[in-house]
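Annual report, structural modelling task.

Input specification for the NAP complex:
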Amino acid sequence: MELIDGNQIAADIIAELKTEVATFAGRPPCIALVRVGEDPASVSYVKKKEKTAAEIGILSRIILPPATTTQVELEKLIDDLNADPTVDGILVQSPLPKHLDEAAAFRRLAAHKDVDGFHTLNIGKVAQEDDTGFVACTPAGIMELLRRSGTDLKGKHVVVLGRSLIVGKPVALLALQKKAGANGTVTLCHSGTKDVAALTRQADVLIAAIGRAEFVTADMVKPGAVIIDVGINRVPDATKKTGYRLTGDVHFPTVSPLASKITPVPGGVGPMTVAMLMKNTVKAYKQARP
Ligand code: NAP
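The model returned the following structure:
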């Protein structure tokens, strides 16, 4: 069994971007990070994004409207960033406070600055196999992990657990694309799927993104499969100071001995998400300067 080291692969991507950004003449790329309110997880995610941007040489503009911001105010702020030629990429941190319409906010972004990849146009470009768009960061990170760990999906049966718009659906579309490294045969499972285990047992590559701690057990996996565990779940653990530990959607202790390659949680897909956001920001910068 080979561990797919997401920390190392993300560090490699960050180092490559740093080298590339150092060659740019004029102002460096700039990402606007918009965080509405003080959701604690969002505070730490935005900090991490700011830190990684700085490491690469990407400028970040942090915008922190209060939790009471209205939809009209948020959309005005987005319009201003859309029109600002010194901003290449815009990220509106999810989740927004409940009274705000997140999908509408994402649609308001200029598609060519939507480095998080949730604008309708960018989701459509994934389906059309148009590489000028931005792929959402977690699915893009999964594909990069597969590529860089030497897993070619051609001719493989790829089973995806979960059909969310941020992970399951886009990663299924990417695995299906008729291009080098992809070209897989894809089965997409969800809560309405009958006998999920019968399908996962056929998977050459299994991508688990359902948000259920240790759902995938050894009896659900074909020996030799490549396993990508996207899940991040908190389970109570009295031995930890925090009172919990993080676990994936895969029961790592029993599944990993069967797998040919597997991502750990943490240290697998997680670190890739920020790295791909930075890659998208550099892409937006370059596309604005043909
Ligand atoms: P989500 O929006 O809650 O979607 C979960 C999906 O799993 C849904 O499509 C649901 O089906 C399906 N599902 C739930 N229970 C199932 C079952 N028993 N059998 C088959 N399908 C089932 O979740 P998400 O946002 O995609 O996130 C999934 C996991 O990935 C979470 O643990 C999340 O924390 C993690 N995540 C990690 C990263 C990262 O950077 N590593 C990024 C994003 C998410 P229905 O559609 O029928 O409801």
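DSSP finds ten helices and eleven strands in the chain.
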